[in-house]
């Protein structure tokens, strides 16, 4: 897998669903551990580039598929993703050499909502949000302006949750994201009450951000996480 050493994991959630994950320990001098929650599209097999960049930068990485995704059992649901992230966090902390104080949660798009909810219950060293919307209702409003808000579930209310976040947050977003407009990243940034940074990446969209700007993306993460330890 892109030259990376990895371990297949079976991760059992509190309600008995078995998830599939990969544990990828870095071969470089370690600077931290990343719990990676992917977006709605695809599965962990589509995030090998993300894992490679993070591993080369010095992060251990644990990727997992939500229930109903990839090789994970079960059916997808918002509550299910929250239970899944808790089980994945437990699996991460069980790995050799993992120190909870240098654990970061990284959420991509939908995954940003997953890790924000987790971070309120179990604060990490820092939270990284890549291409993350301010709420499902805000996304629906962008694409279906005539749809009444009350018909859209109040799912993943990220701007509201980020206001309660105690951990530092790095928000990264593509300037030309046509699925989740960059204004939603600014909304999340404005709502965050604690230590925060915003990186807008020129010419990057929603699904191509890491493909087009992977080095810029991971360099920003490395620099930000290093400043947190100062």
From TrEMBL:
Q: Which GO terms describe its molecular function?
A: hydrolase activity
Query: Which keywords are on file for this protein?
Result: Hydrolase
**Keyword 4Fe-4S (UniProt):** no
Q: Which SUPFAM superfamilies match?
A: alpha/beta-Hydrolases
Looking up Pfam families in the UniProt record yields: Hydrolase_4
Annotated ranges, domain Serine aminopeptidase S33:
32-140
This protein is called what? Alpha/beta hydrolase
Its organism's taxonomic lineage begins at: Bacteria, Bacillati, Actinomycetota, Actinomycetes, Mycobacteriales
